[in-house]
Amino acid sequence: MRREWVHAWLLLLPALVLLFGFTHLPAVQTLIDSFWSTPRGRRPSVFVGGANYERMLADPIFLRAMVNNLIYAALTIPASIALALAMALFVERRIAGRAFLRMAYFTPTVLPLIAVANIWLFFYLPGFGLFDQIRGLFGLRPVNWIGQPATALYSLTLVSIWNQAGFFMIFFLAALQTIPESLREAAALEGASRWTFFRRVTWPLIMPTTLFVSVNATINAVRMVDHVFVMTQGGPNNASTLLLYYIYEQGFRFWDTSYAATLTVVMVAILALVGIGQFLLLDRRVHYR
C-alpha cells in the first residue's frame, strides 16, 4: 500500500511542480508585490503597505473599468448562455444539414481572437462596413460603432457573444444527448408540449452543465483583453476599458508593476468570490430531484 502511495505521488509530481511554479507561486508573489512600490532605475522598491490599494480606490479609471466590466459581464454571460443553449437545442434535432450547422456554429470558437477582432473591425467600419452597408439600404446614416463612447463597449460585447456562444454550445449539445430517449417518449405519450418538456425535464437535467458554462462565461468576462487591444484600446475616453486591459496598460505600457499587481489581486479575489458564490447558490439546483 505504501509503495502504491509513493508511486501515485511520483506520477502527480510533474503536474504539481508545474502548477506550483506557474500558478501558486506567481499568485503569492503578486500579492506580496502589491504591498511594495515599483522599482525604477537605481531606486529599489520599498514597502508601502496599503498605499497601492488606497490609490486604486481613488483611481477614476479603475472605477470606470469596473463599471464597464460589470456591464460587459451582465450582457455577455446570460446572452452567451442563452444563445448557446438555443443553438444546441436546434442542432440536436434531426434536421437536414445538421452536421454543417454544428460546424458553422462552432467555427468562431476556433478562430484566433486577434483574427476575430479584425473581422469585426471590418463589420464596424463607418460607411463601408457590413452594418453600415445594411443600414444604408434603409437610408440610415453611418455610425462610428467603436469610435464613440455610447456604442464602443456594446460593440465589443456583441463580438464576445458571437465568439464564445459556439464553444458553450458544444457542452450543452453533449448534455442534451445524455437525456434518455424514454423520457421524451413518455412525455409525448402524456401529451406534454415541447416547452413543458424543456422546463420540467431538459432544463433540470442540464443544470450541472449550465453551472459549468456559467462559471466559464464569468471567467471569460473578466479576462477579456484581445478584442479591446485590437479594436478600441480602451477608448474612446476609457469607454471600453475593461479590468484586464487596464492591468495590461499599467504593467506593460506604463511599467507600474506594483500597481498592476494590486489590480490583479483584486481581479483574482473577485473571480474567486463570484465562482464560490455560483457554486454555493446553484449547488442545490444542479441535481434533478
UniProtKB/TrEMBL annotation:
Q: Name one Pfam family in it.
A: BPD_transp_1
| PANTHER family reported for this sequence | ABC TRANSPORTER PERMEASE PROTEIN (PTHR30193), INNER MEMBRANE ABC TRANSPORTER PERMEASE PROTEIN YCJO (PTHR30193:SF37)
PROSITE patterns xref list: ABC_TM1
Organism, by scientific name, is Halodurantibacterium flavum
Residues passing through the membrane, by range: 70-91, 103-125, 152-176, 197-219, 259-282
**Record-linked CDD domains:** TM_PBP2 (cd06261)
Tell me what topology the record assigns in the membrane.
Multi-pass membrane protein
Its annotated compartments are: Cell membrane
Please tell me where this protein is predominantly located: membrane
Q: What family does the database annotate?
A: Belongs to the binding-protein-dependent transport system permease family.
Query: Per its record, how is this protein called by name?
Result: Carbohydrate ABC transporter permease
Record's keyword annotation contains Transmembrane helix: yes
Gene3D superfamilies attached here? Answer: MetI-like (1.10.3720.10)
Occurrences of domain ABC transmembrane type-1 (ranges): 66-275
Record key words, sorted = Cell membrane, Membrane, Transmembrane, Transmembrane helix, Transport
